[in-house]
Amino acid sequence: MERRLPEAVRERTPVEKLVWLYVRQYPGQHSVASLDKALGVYPARALNALVDAGLLIEEEPPTRMKGGKYRAILPSPEEAAA
User: For residues 52 and 11, what is the distance between their CA atoms, to the nearest angstrom?
Assistant: First the structure.
């Protein structure tokens, strides 16, 4: 089985793809600082862009004290087959 990124994710910047894949693999509490530490990139713009594009769901917004809670949107069966 070939594993491909969903079409909507393939069009994103490399940092956005990296953030999406990481959040898909490890859904839950994430902050810009924790993603920076885990991925070695500064993901603030990527995180916001993915939420705005509907590729990540912000289950809990970030606060001054802790990061937000996120999960990735998985592709539809039609998109996964493409």
Answer: 14
pTM for this structure? Answer: 0.78
Q: Which amino acid is at 30?
A: H
Give the separation between CA 23 and CA 38, rounded to whole angstroms. Answer: 11
At residue 23, the pLDDT reads 94
| pLDDT tens, position by position, 57-67 | 999 999 988 89
User: Is the CB of residue 60 less than 8 Å from the CB of residue 69?
Assistant: yes
On whether the CB atoms of residues 17 and 49 are closer than 8 A, the answer is no
Burial of 16 (0-12, 13-18, 19+ CB in 10 A): buried
Secondary structure element (H or E) that encloses residue 40, with its range: none
Taking the C-alpha atoms of residue 16 and residue 22, their distance in angstroms, rounded to an integer, is 10
